[in-house]
Fold this sequence. Notes:
This protein has one domain (11-92). It has helices spanning 12-34, 49-69, 72-92. It is mainly alpha-helical. It is 69% helix and 0% strand. It is globular and about 40 Å long. It contains three helices and no strands.
Amino acid sequence: MIRYPEEVMVTSTDQAIIYDHITIERCRQETLKDEGKFPWPLADAAPSPAEKLAVLAEEFGEVAKAVCEGGRENLREELVPVAACCVAWLESMR
């Protein structure tokens, strides 16, 4: 078992809130796909890994921008879509 220092521990409540944000973002992504904003979501099996990587790279670029601009709240807002994209990609591998 991995042991983390107490100062880096998050409570299960914190994790639940984070996972809720990721789930909400996944639903938002699916809604945007249904509205025609995306030709396919990452959760679809059809897109190639390279196509999925391009989407993930774009989202990660937003995280890099937030880090460079130094805004902690904006960083949090940009990390959630990255996590949601990773979840969607994993969903496509079922």
